[in-house]
Amino acid sequence: MVQTPLDGRPIVTVRPTERIFKFRVRSCSDIRIDLLGHTSNTSFINYYFEIGVLSNTETKLYKNKNNQYQLLKSEITRDVLHCHFMRDYWIMFSAEGTFVFGTGRDMENQLLSYVDFDLIAIHALSLRSMNQIADWELQKSSGTSTIFYANDNYNHVWLQQYEFASTPIVFLVRSCSDANL
Length: 181
Fold this sequence. Notes:
Distance between the termini: 18 Å
Oligomer: single chain
Order of helices and strands: EEEEEHEEEEEEEEE
Helix content: under 10%
């Protein structure tokens, strides 16, 4: 599990192995998933989903068009996020330009869908929370590498996992200076 801070900095970058990204999250509102054009630079945002915005009532999809973000689709999704319980979510993006966001472990509830006929390539995802702290759980099948960034102004990498193993890596590091594993 990883936690994203209130200030909107990206904390996690995932290179998806498939075009379906499954995750669990606990947050009262305002999370964001950036669909990136580069695997190691979170400033190359081609698309992004805002989930639970406007007091947890809407979900939106935006596209970067000439360095300006254009709203592609907005749907009413009242109480899509929960403050106290982890819920299952998924995002699908196809090579043909179809974007879908939904809930449920088995991808049963589709909440937002859009087709972009002028697709920009997606190579990675990053997770953010905008006004609330969010706790995230990522499924092993969702990506081949994960980078968690430290909660500081320097974007220090504090965990890199390049291959998901069959057993999880769980540890806690607390340090007042440099810590290397």
